[in-house]
Amino acid sequence: MNKREFLQIITSMGLTTAFWQDLAAFDTNQEYQTLSRLSNDEEKFWKHIRSLYELKPDYINLENGWYNIIPKPILKAYFEEIHKLNLEGTYYMRTRLFDDNIEVRKQLAQLIGCSYEELIITRNTTESIDTVIAGIDWKPGDEVIFNTQEYPAMIDMFKVQARRYGIVNKIISIPNDPKSDEEIVSLYEKAITPKTRVILVSHIINITGHILPVRKICDMARNRGIFTIVDGAHAVAHFDFKISDLNCDAYASSLHKWLSVPLGAGMLYLRKDRIKEIWCLFGETAYPDEDIRKLNHIGTHPAHTVLTIPASIEFYQKIGAKRKENRLRYVQEYWTSKVRGVPNIFLNTPSQSHRACGIANVGIQHIKPANLAKILLEKYKIWTVAIDHPEVQGVRITPNIFTTTDELDKLVAALIELSKK
Ligand SMILES: Cc1ncc(COP(=O)(O)O)c(C=O)c1O
Questions:
Q1: Which domains does the chain have, with CATH numbers?
Q2: Cα of 126 to ligand 1 centre, how many Å?
Q3: How far apart are the first and last CA of the chain?
Q4: Can you give the pLDDT at residue 5?
């Protein structure tokens, strides 16, 4: 859709505020050309990226974990998809939905390194992982291993299976700053018994930013015939990897996080030879047991969100996967390196560079997490989230690609000032 058409639409809808005018004038191709021109100048490149976001001036947003703010190229594509679906009505659903879904799955599969026949688009990680857990043919006494820092929704789902089928949940504790991969892998290995059926492990722990040695855990589990589920809610488009590198059986992610798809998009990968083992949660008989689409009968859903996935992939690729990973790790290390070792400040995120990326967690002695988050917002205008977990007490700091070092300097100054009180 060109600028004139977009303007006509928003005017006909009475949408004449500055926001709509700005979005109508926004020229995605031109912005991408500028980005490509600035590619060799790191500082100007990221400054331009920031200009592609509309950000509230009221606070510094260091809580980009739950979901990502959408940059203008994706926001514009999203509104165009909403308009298209609304204009065409059920004609779209009956003539295009099916083929478009395959096309989007193909693009996503290529991005994350799997076959599109091993991938479905869901609404989020919770739906993806719960679909797998609910689909396993559990027997009483089957054992599952996961760590205490897994996402609470997944822990709850296993607790429900324990009540319903008598499975046994073995919950291990992992260190926040391990010295080696083997230290982590051996914790899972030691918990295995002949009854172990499943290991659930996060690719990146959401409360600390700890990247776990998932490949080594999956290799170890595969040698013992154990089914592995990787919770990659925060991993896709955060750091560079391919699912084919991980050797897992199931992989789930939320695309509204780091891929910046509008809210309500997730994915589920299932290794081809394991699909037939998983029962569908929502009844579906149109596909054979080996076809992953049997797990995707979710009913009418916001298809315009799914249709915006290609625009999100394009935005991500214009930046470059490795470049984005490097930038996120750089901004995290920019501030953590300035407070690590400062008296009364402690970090709950691994110190070795490759064990973390954009997310980190910091605490201050004698200040409870909720209070720290409140002070940061009210006194310093810095938006974060408090984490109060038996093994992790602090605030989670999640910058984004639009975060500037000036903003991080303000965080560092605030933490140091508070640590002295
Ligand atoms: C590790 C992890 N798993 C799962 C989820 C759930 O994601 P969603 O709410 O998109 O299903 C989150 C959300 O932050 C998460 O951090």
A1: 94-313 (3.40.640.10)
A2: 6
A3: 56
A4: 74
